[in-house]
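BUG-284 | component: ligand-complex export | severity: low

The export step for NAP jobs runs without errors, but we want the raw record kept on the ticket for reference. Input record follows.
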Amino acid sequence: MTAKIINGKEIASTVRKNIKEQVDRLKESGLTPGLAVILVGTDPASQVYVGSKEKACIEVGFHSEVYRLPEETTQEELLALIQKLNTDEKIHGILVQLPLPKHLDEKVVINAISPRKDVDGFHPLNAGALFVGEKGLVPCTPKGCIHLIKETGFDLKGKKAVVVGRSNIVGKPVAMLLLNENATVTICHSRTQNLKEELLQADVVVAAVGKPNFITGDMIKEGSVVIDVGINRLENGKLVGDVDFDSAKEKAGWITPVPGGVGPMTIAMLLQNTLEAAQNIMEN
Ligand code: NAP
Ligand code: L37
């Protein structure tokens, strides 16, 4: 089988168009959703992503503020900025781009963001809401993965999903979302024995490992849906996923490319979360 390609770039563009229409209407009733993005330091990938987020915000008509802070920023300075944004009425979403420089404590910083403005969904209150099935803000990349799977028309109910990776920002939340869709979910990680055996049973694979071309076609079940979250830059400058696309596409039924798969959806879901946060804040 040669897999159908899940075109994340195109799907993300449709999502953004839909958001823009909603923003146009909200603006007529006097509400402009606002997002503040904070980047500390000069991580090259983060600079690219924050630039894309800023551009996407402006395109859909959001109010956008980007704080590019120097590497030496202290914890106190960062927390003071977050506190100011927490009470700023123009701002409905706050995103601190990770990873932070080593001298800053990610947990303390995330905890300082008002849960109502936590458009990354990383605050324990939102993570907990996802865990117990209550309403809350859902992390962008996992939300994008589910959107892409649904877009194929694949019904997750009762299907076997294998998530490779257990980070708080991708693996764990995507597993919880798949469970909420009634999939039977297995989470694999660096201590998993027989990863290949697990993967060969999977109707859906979500790969979030951070190792180039780690999952190969011989590990993929015929006809499955393969969502590749990995973004790895090779020495020659080429961007590849965690899945070896060329061999996996001969086995999968559906597959996301890198670039042009999950990445653009992460940004579209950030816009969606900011819109939801603005609506929630206005409603109560
Ligand atoms: P992370 O925090 O480094 O987590 C990687 C996970 O992979 C860990 O749980 C680790 O297991 C597991 N792992 C490592 N080696 C393994 C092995 N040999 N077999 C099985 N599992 C293994 O990474 P992350 O933040 O989740 O990101 C994962 C990838 O997604 C990266 O390439 C990142 O750049 C990309 N990403 C993309 C987007 C996007 O929008 N497309 C967004 C976020 C991240 P242990 O827990 O046992 O160490
Ligand atoms: N929400 N996302 C959120 N918060 C964070 O703290 N680190 C982080 C995060 N991650 C993130 O922004 N990831 C991300 C990854 C890829 C893209 C965007 C965001 C993306 O646009 N990828 C393009 C290729 C970009 C490139 O050429 O480098 C793609 O097509 O995959």
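Assignee comment: Attached the raw record above. Residues 162 and 186 are 5 Å apart (CA to CA).
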